[in-house]
Amino acid sequence: MLLTDIVHPDLLRALGRSGHGTKILLADGNYPHSTGAPAAAERIHLNLTPGLLTVTQVLEPLVRTVPIEAAEIMLTAEDTEAPVIADYRALLPQAEFVGHERFAFYDAARTPDVAVVVATADQRQYANLLLTVGVRTA
């Protein structure tokens, strides 16, 4: 029996393969999950029904399982942070945040260092989050 909050076997396997510098995309329900990341990235589908699960719901146990050193976000059309980003900042107080306009975020999410894509059913706009795995210190 595992002692981690995450018990989804495919997600655990994908996280276990991720090392320092690997990127994990937590994508909202509007994100092009099939084409918006490298073909080699492992896709974990947690989009059961609209609104379940959200990026925040996936991020909460993820931060207790994987060290996160940086977070990239998609900025709104007005070049501002969407309200959901406040939740991410609260859960990732140690992480450096970088904002990208929409198409620049898509480009960042398609780089070869993106190894895991978690498809959520988050209905909030601009809820996408690109995480960089940090170093385990203990």
UniProtKB/TrEMBL annotation:
Catalytic activity entry:
beta-D-ribopyranose = beta-D-ribofuranose; alpha-L-fucose = beta-L-fucose
Q: Looking at the keywords, is Isomerase present?
A: yes
Which GO biological process annotations does it have?
Answer: fucose metabolic process
Q: Which UniProt keywords apply?
A: Isomerase
- Pfam families from the UniProt entry: RbsD_FucU (PF05025)
Query: Known SUPFAM superfamilies for this protein?
Result: RbsD-like
Name the Gene3D superfamilies for this protein.
RbsD-like domain
Q: Which GO terms describe its molecular function?
A: D-ribose pyranase activity; fucose binding; L-fucose mutarotase activity
Please identify the protein, giving its name as recorded: RbsD/FucU family protein
What organism is the protein native to? Answer: Brevibacterium senegalense
